[in-house]
């Protein structure tokens, strides 16, 4: 699995959810049966503090779909600005693969 680079815009105080697909080199879906996911958001790569983003392998896992999400309580506690993030999937045998990474921008809102 190769890592894709995707920059995300998230509104402060709002719920965030996005689904992406992990694919093989030939474009077919990667079967994620037995995989789990993890994701951290940091101000800088070497920051000692982080925010956890929820990672769910959607059903059926054979479709290769991964949903990432943040609640409004989490985004409301983040300061506006740019952060870095990545999404790492771990197979049932312990092999870790970074499948998504990029810049996550928290944008201040007026209403929320």
Helix content: under 10%
Low-confidence stretches: none
CA(first)-CA(last) distance: 37 Å
Coarse morphology: elongated
Strand content: over 45%
Average of pLDDT: 95
Write down the oligomeric state: single chain
According to CATH, the homologous superfamily is Immunoglobulins
User: Given the helix and strand composition, which structural class is it?
Assistant: mainly beta
Helix count? Answer: 1
Question: Which CATH-level-2 architecture?
Answer: Sandwich
CATH structural fold name: Immunoglobulin-like
Reading the helices and strands in chain order gives EEEEEEEHEE
Number of strands: 9
Q: Characterize the largest beta sheet: strand count, sense, and whether it forms a barrel.
A: 6 strands, mixed
Could you please describe the fold and organization of this structure?
The protein is mainly beta. The chain has one domain (4-107): Sandwich (Immunoglobulin-like), CATH 2.60.40. Helices cover 4% and strands 47% of the residues. It contains 1 helix and 9 strands. It has one helix spanning 72-76; strands at residues 4-5, 8-11, 16-21, 36-42, 51-52, 54-57, 65-70, 81-90, 96-107. Strands 1, 2, 4, 5, 8 and 9 form a 6-stranded mixed sheet that branches. Strands 3-7-6 form a 3-stranded antiparallel sheet. Strand 6 and strand 7 (65-70) form a beta hairpin. The radius of gyration is 15 Å and the shape is elongated. The chain starts with a strand and ends in a 5-residue tail after the last strand. The model has no long low-confidence stretch (mean pLDDT 95).
């Amino acid at each position: 699995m190769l890592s894709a680079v995707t920059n995300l815009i998230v509104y402060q105080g709002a719920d965030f959810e996005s689904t992406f697909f992990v694919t093989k080199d030939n474009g077919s879906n990667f079967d994620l049966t037995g995989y789990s996911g993890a994701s951290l958001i940091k101000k800088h790569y070497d920051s000692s503090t982080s925010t956890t983003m929820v990672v769910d392998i959607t059903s059926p896992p054979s479709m290769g779909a991964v949903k990432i999400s943040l609640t409004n309580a989490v985004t409301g506690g983040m300061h506006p600005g740019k952060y870095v993030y990545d999404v790492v999937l771990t197979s049932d045998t312990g092999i870790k693969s970074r499948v998504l990474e990029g810049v996550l921008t928290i944008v201040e809102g007026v209403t929320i």
